Amino acid sequence: MPSLKDIKTQINSVGSTKKITSAMKMVAASKLRRSQEKAEAARPYSSRLEEMLASLASSAASGEGIIKLLTGTGNDQNYVVVPVSADRGLCGGFNSSINKETFRLVKSLEDDGKNVQLMPVGKKSRDFFNRVMKDKIFDSFADLNVSVNGYDAALQVSNKLQELYFDGKFDKCIIVFNKFKSAISQEVTQQQIIPLDVSDSSKEENVDDSAAKAIYDYEPDEETILKDLLPKNVSIQIFKVLLDSDAGEHGARMAAMDNATRNAGEMIDSLTLKYNRTRQAFITKELIEIISGAESI
Amino acid sequence: MATISFDLVSPENLIFNDEVGMIIVPGKDGDFGVLPGHSKVMSSLRPGRVMVYGEDKNLLKAFFVSGGFAEVNPEKCIVLAESVNEINTIEKQSIEKEIEELSGQETDVAKDQLAIAKAKIEALDSSFYEKI
Lengths: 297, 132
Known about the structure:
The structure holds 2 protein chains of 2 kinds.
Chain A: H1 4-57, H2 68-71, E1 78-83, H3 94-111, E2 115-118, H4 123-132, H5 146-149, H6 151-166, E3 172-182, E4 185-194, H7 199-213, E5 217-219, H8 222-296
Chain B: E1 4-9, E2 14-20, E3 22-27, E4 30-34, E5 41-45, E6 48-53, E7 59-65, E8 68-73, E9 76-81, E10 84-86, H1 92-103, H2 108-125
Parallel strand pairs in B: 1-9
Antiparallel strand pairs in B: 1-2, 3-4, 3-6, 5-8, 6-7, 7-10, 8-9
């Protein structure tokens, strides 16, 4: 039977763990609120940019140069997969679900005979893929800190990607990230960002008023605007993804820490029960010894 | 008097959203004014001033944008800007210092920033109408 002192130490150590996890939960909750606000603040820009692009995209012919961000290279052979994870752990399945999904995606692309390269964003996915498929990584980003650096963080990633794209290093780029659904749920999502995928979001409304949209005047001209707009759109998409992932991370951490705090509480309860039982057992034992000692005299 | 709805948006947030009387936008080929019922235009912007006038044509706000896009239709004007400062929060001295620092550098990034800083000075110095 463990001694009373052992149980007491155990209760104390679980108690301090509980303090830490509940503090982390509070921190995550306040960070979550802030990054959620940021994610919402960024939404008007990206949705309006998408609208503009949708009305322009229909008029774009295939061509060389920047237009390739829209039309693609014409090939379908070389892929870049960008998993976006957090820089820190202790947030439940947040990072591992990204890594798992990316791993699965890479395998399935390879089964189709494609060349796949990786560009992990965030320490956790960088470290993971450094272990399991080091030869495929050709660049990585960590400590981007989107909540502090804002749009500049997204620019770093986007500039690198575009540089590689125009060097002809890859044909398609898919980003894997945790989409923020609510504070307690994130959804692992794949999104193709290069070439731009305009088909899903705006097709339906476009059918009705494509005639109305066509009568825009363009200044200086359509092509110049499109050339300015496309690289910006890639950056904005990445910015949106980073913000979503940031909010998701805090949400996931909050949920994980909430669970940990609750578990610690339960553990303390059961340990306290055990402590009291043991204490009583000791007292009973001592009483029996005293009584039987007295009887024998 | 008719109004037009005006949105000024930066990647980080929505900066201005209201019904206004007129907006002057720094288009790539020159400034243009947008009144209610303006024809449909899509334009890239150069670094410069976005001036917002109220229904009675009094100047409401003046912003500096470092580039971006504008989309105009008869009911609505949307400006998507990369970075936005309100004109009266810009400090001339710090910009001048920035220009000094940047003017020696040769990189593309520095040149872009220099052009933006110079446009800021120009925006501060040039005159504008308080009321039209």
